[in-house]
Amino acid sequence: MRTAIVRDPLQPSAALAEVASVANGAAIVFVGTVREVNDGRPVTGIEYSAYEGMAARELAAIAGEAAARSGTTDIVVEHRVGRLELGEASVVIAVAHAHRAEAYDASRYIIEQIKRRVPIWKREEYVDGTREWVDPTASRTEIPR
Amino acid sequence: MTITALFFASYADVFGRDQVEMEVPNGSTVGDFLRHLRALDTDRRLPPAPLVAVNERYARPDLVLRPGDEVAVIPPVAGG
User: Fold this and answer.
1) For FRET with A62, which of A2, A22, A80, A106 sits at 20 to 30 Å CA-CA?
2) Interface check B61 vs A, CB under 8 A
3) pLDDT of A138 over the 70 cut
């Protein structure tokens, strides 16, 4: 199991290779990428920033929870920070398991928990040159679980 | 006692900085800290009860702070 906040471009195929083993009948990789339009506005890039110590701690906790739920420790999660161009990967989640159902479940659990509780923020840059912090939660303020 | 307040993303814009040393009375809770902070948010741009993390863990309003704590005010997260 390995989790990290990273500044360099993510390598999904390397993450997949890291979790693959002959004990596993299923290996999947989820890649989150920068989309060209958000809420109808054309986007030119995104700047990701993080509370890095806490983000690293939360990522590790989430991977540990996914391991306990699914029964595999063949998990790699990396989240990128810094400025990303369109199409670049912001997050990579590689999971391998003896069986596909558990691999999919673990991957889904990890991305949903990242979106709920890992202290990472993104500022979108638009074609008109303006920039805005994205609030996908409508300012939800209860403690995430 | 002195604590270190951290502001991120849109909240750093609200306060015009990402970190400040703050004096709060001994025995202050997270809730007391937020009331203290509100005095600095003259334009009322923070939500009524923003998320707070103390020493890198999400904290409830009744948590009692200790000298040197790192108290982060956490805007709505947007990772993934």
Assistant:
1) A22
2) no
3) no
